């Protein structure tokens, strides 16, 4: 082999070895995310317009690339591995529906929205605070399912809920995984009336419940003694007991099943805490405090001119500051904190009008006793 051929072979080997070490991976910093820029009203109008016009194109391009590199393709899965495991929209900037509270109420609202409208561009965001989950209303609830109500809407909603929970494994099943269980334990609730006035109301409610399709039976004191001989019914005038669609469920398992199903439907859960609301005011309206002498009247007029367009949520991260999330619709599903969240939006702070009516929800202490009865009486048959 000549000297020229040896040099050529050496150069080709060096080139091939260097090519094998080349890679195109890069670290994507927080400033590189698509939703990192927040423009205040009136700030840099040209850049703000350009950012909004090109946002849809950048999102379409990213989704197209992710679809091409889908790792779950049947043919050549290794050749279609994802280049990045990070979400480009870790903290959302806007959403069509923003739900405050990730408990049963908030997660169920998100489930039915995405169940009926499965559009990827219809973004549903749920804000939850994991630190408050152990003391939330969903977790502390006994998970009771009842049919005996005095309002027709409550009876209809309860029957729909009972039918949904009976087939929860079908509704909340994810692909080919095992159907989730909510541990539905059928057990009728017994309501007692100790006065004639209460018994008359119970009869009226019983008629309403029958009209709505509920199966409820009225029991007189002799019937109570026959069915439940271990009860003292000396001061009982009338009783009602549910015969169907009543019992208890495991709220932990139900919430976990709904959340897992929501993730597959495209619902985004954000671990954050709402610290305030973002308002939009008319640019032509002057500052009312400079025109009115009464400060309270000026505050009331200020609330009337404002419109809620989003929230300020602080992520559950070290030294994180609150960031805005704008939405077309905001659902307050924060349980016992619903009144506090409503006051942040100005509800209940005015002296007159609709904003003067507060949300009548507040946290109160409640005690429940769990008794472990080893020698409990046997379960008696319920009349049908």
Automatic annotation (TrEMBL):
Alphabetical keyword list: Oxidoreductase
Gene3D superfamilies for the chain: D-Amino Acid Oxidase, subunit A, domain 2, FAD/NAD(P)-binding domain
Ranges for domain FAD dependent oxidoreductase: 97-362
Source domain of life: Eukaryota
Gene Ontology CC entries for this record: mitochondrion
Keyword Membrane attached: no
Gene Ontology terms for molecular function: oxidoreductase activity
GO biological process per UniProt: mitochondrial respiratory chain complex I assembly
UniProt keyword Oxidoreductase present: yes
Role noted for this protein: Required for the assembly of the mitochondrial membrane respiratory chain NADH dehydrogenase (Complex I). Involved in mid-late stages of complex I assembly.
Name under which the protein is recorded: FAD-dependent oxidoreductase domain-containing protein 1
Organism this protein belongs to: Pristionchus fissidentatus
